[in-house]
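Box S1 | Example of a co-folding query
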Amino acid sequence: MNFFEHLVDTAPIFLDATVVTLRLTAMALVFAMALGALVAWMSMSSVAPLRWIAVAFIGLIRGTPLIAQIFVLYFGITEVVLLPAFWAGTIALGVHNSAYIAEIIRSGFQSVPDGLNEASRSLGMSRMQTLRRVRAPLALRAILPVLGSQFIIAVKDSSLVAFIGMRELFQSSRNLAASTYEPLTMYLIVSLYYLAIVLALTFVVSRIERRLSVHRR
Amino acid sequence: MTTDQTSSFSTGHEGEPLVEMRGIVKKFGDTVVLDGVDLDVHRGEVVVLIGPSGAGKSTLLRCINGLEQIQSGTIRVAGEELVYKEKHLNHVRSRIGMVFQSFNLFPHMKVIDNLMMAQRDVLDRPKQEARERAERLLERVGLADKADAYPEKLSGGQQQRVAIARALAMDPEVMLFDEPTSALDPELVGEVLQVMRTLADEGMTMVVVTHEMRFAKRAADRVVLMADRGIAEEGTPEQVLENPTSERGRAFLAELSEE
Ligand SMILES: Nc1ncnc2c1ncn2[C@@H]1O[C@H](COP(=O)(O)OP(=O)(O)OP(=O)(O)O)[C@@H](O)[C@H]1O
Ligand SMILES: [Mg+2]
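Box S1 (continued) | Returned holo structure for adenosine-5'-triphosphate
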């Protein structure tokens, strides 16, 4: 069989697995956005203990490998309750990304010049009004491109949950590599699937970015 | 402080002051930046603050609308004492216009929206009324054709005129300017000063920090020279700029004329 025959042959398996990867990543990212926003808010809080917790959390997550986090969560939690690999993987990927997203959100808000906050407050706008009308929209414009790249990293990182036995894209390629004795072909093919997802995502992000650019041209 | 001298000084603006500052003490950490400053600004008066860098001119200005919180003393604006409660501050600030050295226009909004936002959100003005007010003011600062432009497309001088119009849109009782022309190319300074002079002529109450001595001479009712954490000297432009009596005043003006 040549490469293209393999590509066609494996399509049903890989397309199924793509759905799993997308669901896994999407759910992890929704969770990561919520947790990341909370941690970002804590890291900008005027309450020192909240800041410490945020800094410690971010430092811990960013300072340890994702694969270790996945294993710790999977084996740690299954000690207590039986957690399916899908949920262990989703939570691990979500927690991991939340730390990065928290930093992205925080630096997005910090990129908004203080002077704009002061200008808005000087007009009598409240803290909340200033957040809604000035700081958040401007932060969002700084956050989006970086968030886009983080999402792309998350898609690729999701391959690591293969190692707790979840049948997503990468695990499928491992299984096929073993059963067909064609590891090179299978890993090339799975790479194409990841590439396709990443390109689609890049396209979507750049469209959104253009619509939100500071001054529409 | 030279309170006796200052309170007996008159520019023909009598009655209760619009801005009344008494015994203002401002510290950043342990550093005292303002040490018992008194300043009155009467309705219709144009007060120019001058003085060496670090004298506390910006800080004093920012205390007036509560951007900086004072450690001791009282500030009254139109008879109302400033307290650091969000709602009250928002209300007081809506009646005080402020113009910054760096313009600080909202870059994600068109010029017209820069002028309309606070009218709508703070004063609850109907959209049509806010737009008309904004358009009239843009016309007044000579930028009627820039309503739909984004700030980035404007020159510094145009941006600063928009910033002035944005502050005026709130119908403030007093306008504060912190070195409004310092960030501008020399050839753009004139157009901003022109707008400010017109405003002064129309009777707007203004407190202006500036290094533009020509503006001080021509538009100021009173010049206040700050140095060493307080007011070193104040009087008419002629008194302060031509015959300073204080040591610090003479030193500062000697330095200026060397430039
Ligand atoms: N946020 C701050 N934190 C700490 N110190 C500050 C802060 N803002 C101002 N200062 C200090 O307070 C003093 C007065 O500053 P201020 O900006 O009021 O001076 P200024 O007269 O406006 O000077 P310039 O002509 O340079 O603008 C300076 O010594 C400055 O370093
Ligand atoms: Mg200053």
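The helical segments of chain A are 3-43, 48-62, 66-80, 85-110, 114-122, 127-157, 169-180, 183-212. The longest helix of chain A spans residues 3-43.
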